[in-house]
Amino acid sequence: MSMIQFTRNYTDRSNDYGFQFEFFCDKCGNGHMSPFIASKVGVATGLLRAAGSFFGGTIGRAAHAGTHLKDALRGQGWDDAYAEAVDAGKQHFKNCTRCGKWVCPRSCWNEGRGLCETCAPDLAEEAASIQAHVAVEQAREKARTVDHVATLDMKQTRTAVCPHCAAKVDGGRFCTECGKPLAAQKLSCGKCGTDIPASAKFCPECGSPRSG
């Protein structure tokens, strides 16, 4: 068979009863489904198998022989069906002579240039896209000039969850779920006044037992 020039993206939807193919645009992926082409051998074998399930015997053996015949003819049948589907499918796509891709005419073809939009982008679409991207960049730059965390005290120790009940927290000094303080309370030694870690049982400075 001679070389078939068409979209490189397709899905074979064929089954035992016939052939069908789905072709996709090389650029955006929009697709076209070819008409179903029935396989005469496959249909006949299916009918014989259905009849054989009721009667068995000779009809069942004929269905088995038909399956072998279908397998023997499947290659040529598939090739012929695929070639026919390609010829029909080409009517739904445009071939770019610059890059060789087959694209859908509605979304990916520049009619004025006679090329796909990858090789010859639509200037109006590009201008609209550029404007939108520049607007986003300008919005980012403008946002950077505003202090969005003026009320955020970065000197205060922050936590994502409450250390008492593990509820998620969003700022503040107390948990909105259990009401307990989010920051660990500082304890001091009753004898020497040194700050004592919450996990310590004795003062690290004088060794006195922690009170409270």
TrEMBL record:
Q: Which residues form the DZANK-type domain?
A: 162-207
Q: Which domain of life is it from?
A: Bacteria
Q: What is this protein called?
A: DZANK-type domain-containing protein
The root-end lineage is:
Bacteria, Pseudomonadati, Myxococcota, Myxococcia, Myxococcales
InterPro entries the record matches: DZR (IPR025874)
